[in-house]
Amino acid sequence: MGGKKPPRVIYWFRTDLRLHDSPALKAALDLQPEVLWPIFTWDPHYVYKVKGGVNRWQYLLDCQNDLSGSITKLNPKSKLFVLREGPQTLFPKLFKAWGVTHLVFERDTDTYAKERDRFVMQLAIKAGVEVITRYGRTLWDSDEVVAKNGGKPTMTIMQLQHAGQKIGQIPKPIPAPVSLPDPGETPLNFEHNEPDSRPDLNAEYRENKDKTYSTISGPTGDFAPETLEELGFPSATTPHRGGETIALKMLSDIIANKEYTATFKKPNTSPAAFEPQATTLLSPAMHFGSLSVRLFYWKSQEVVDGYGKGASSPPESLTGQLLFRDMYFAAQAGIGAPFLQTLNNSHVRFIPWHLPSKYTEDADNSDGPTTISGEYQVDSPVAEKWFQRWKYGVTGFPFVDALMRQLRQEGWIHHLGRHLVACFLTRGGCYIHWERGADVFEEWLLDHEPACNAGNWQWLSCTAFFSQFYRCYSPIAFGKKWDKSGALIRRYVPELKDLDEKYIYEPWKAPPQALAAAHVKIAGDGMGDAKEGVYPEPMLDFNERRTVCMNAMKVAYQIGLRGDDKKVKDGSWKKLFEDAGEKEMEGAEIPSDDNGSEADDAENENHKRPRKTRTGRKSDAVKEGPMDRHFKKVKAGS
DNA sequence: TCTGGCGTTGTATAA
DNA sequence: ATTATACAACGCCAG
Questions:
Q1: Beta pairing class for A81-83 and A8-12
Q2: How many CB atoms lie within 10 A of CB A634?
Q3: Which positions in this protein are listed as binding FAD (predicted)?
């Protein structure tokens, strides 16, 4: 140890944008660094390959700005240095130029991020840089939970709790640092790699030219966090703002209300409440790591312990919600990448929903496709129309539409609201694949967490975690139960704001006088330009569809295929359902005479599509390393 | 190995 | 108004 150079440490912030309760940051400071650079790198994967609405970008920028300010408060010379280049190309140059000895970060949980981090660790080893990581994203280390659950993913809350008990007490929160070392010099005497932005899944959101990667240190040259303008985005529409300061204030306000905290029962909170919402709204903060889940856990638990009789307990309680979050993370850790899809997922039921995902060809896998491509098959034009009407909140069912519009505008809806719209899209109405719904939530939710999103969609669609498909949410009755007067509908579906409460959940039943008095007409499908004073007709007969869906679910359960079944991959599942007389999936066939060959063609269509690599190149795709597809090769001589 | 009880968050109807 | 029950019936978990 004696002859070693004093530590020059990069602390790499990613999804842990906070100073309070950060085990990884503590590990960095325990090195007693000579200099410490708090950095954030702009990963092109998230900029271009993860579809995300402007609201979530705003929330991320809020978190970065707040964190940078908090760092500067501890050391006026320091801040969050935001570097506009992918970590895979940036780090080797940075290690050398800045004389780095240690790289420290909190471990990630997503497939892409884990792969990226393995790659970066190899770069560090090559450069003689020591890497230190800690977990801090979950209550317990998800890999340890899986190990204690017999090496299996946690598919019930009981399994999670048992595994957690075996591991031991959830670590107590670590106080925020009271001081931070100076940052070192930040020379940029190296070439800047601009990533390949194609395809840019967020192009539709950009109003102006994307300048994300124009320079490493940003337009002002001082590594300041980006602005929406720099990313080419318009202003956000969400009222929910990010940042550790706000998150800690929200948490302290919640726990100051001892009765709310100690007696919280999730199923008793209203999905129709707004201003204020019935739940904590801290899920986006946990997603970006501006709030530590363990700090939340222990602050809540202390209130429960001090409350005595009458306190709620898991799974309904506040801490119970955090346990469910850990359950999904440990399910993902146990199953791996297929957790986010049906294909190749041994724990998810196969149901022949409409609008199924297309598969990505795997040249190196003779066993058939293993991943979904992000595109889907329009097997039924009617289902596609239902899906679009669901997504944009013009189904003609006011409570569904209110929730979907709230989601799109604000990036957040109550958990039970998510239940209703998810059930309606899948097993309780449209019979559309849960992966389609998960795509929309991924795009619009501020708190989008891949593991929790996929897990909850599996739950609601009764493909994993939950199986009582005969319990079906009604788009009419469920809202009424919580909000008889339809306040949520009046707020988010203003066309109906003056409609008599008797008809607010079923406006198509309103007599002409009631509609005239409310200055609204019930007409059309809601697609195209919105017309003043017009609200669409219901897109389906819910009672009829509920019966159809339930019968179809029953058949699918009897057939009992899982996502990793060979028949799912090769398309031979179809015959099983035909033999069982399943009618709903007939929409999944191209109308044809009895030989069935056209249907087979439709099924094989995705295998015939030309190979599309992420770089858009074809011939040299095989020679690429695992991370190469995320950025351009260094431009020779430029 | 079998079995009854129960599962964070359903609905419609009846008492 | 609250509470019970049928609906048609999954699958984990503990005994």
A1: unpaired
A2: 10
A3: 279-283
Distance CA A149, CA A158 (A): 10
Question: Which nucleotide's C1' is closest to A469 (Cα)?
Answer: C10
Residues of A annotated in the binding site, as ranges?
279-283
Residue A107 belongs to a domain: yes
Please indicate, yes or no, if residue A238 is contained in any of the structural domains: no
Residue ranges, chain A, pLDDT below 50: 1-2, 588-638
Q: How far is the CA of A57 from the C1' of B3 (A)?
A: 53
Spatial contact of A402 and A504, defined as CB atoms under 8 Å apart: no
Instruction: State pLDDT tens for residues A119-145.
Output: 999 999 999 999 999 999 999 999 999
Residues A160 and A126 in one domain: no
**Host domain of residue A494:** 345-542
Using an 8 Å Cβ cutoff, are A239 and A277 in contact? Answer: no
Do A423 and A445 fall into the same domain?
yes
At residue A107, φ and ψ (nearest 5 deg) are -65, 145
Q: Which residue has the least CA–C1' distance to nucleotide C12? A: A156
pLDDT confidence of residue A131: 98
CA gap A356, A434 in Å, rounded = 9
Q: How far apart are CA A447 and CA A188, in angstroms?
A: 34
Which of A89, A117, A137 terminates a domain? The answer is: A137
**What pLDDT is attached to residue A627?**
30
pTM exceeds 0.70 for this model: yes
Please give residues of chain A from 537 to 556 whose alpha-adjacent beta carbon (CB) lies under 7 Å from any atom of strand C: 554
Q: Is A152 left (phi over 0), alpha (psi -120 to 50) or beta?
A: beta
Instruction: Look at residue A326 in the predicted model and tell me its pLDDT.
Output: 98
| Residue partners of A362: CB distance under 8 A and separation at least 6 | A368, A369, A370, A371
pLDDT at position A400 is 98
Pair (A282, A426) in one structural domain = no
- Inter-residue contact A164 to A294 (CB < 8 Å): no
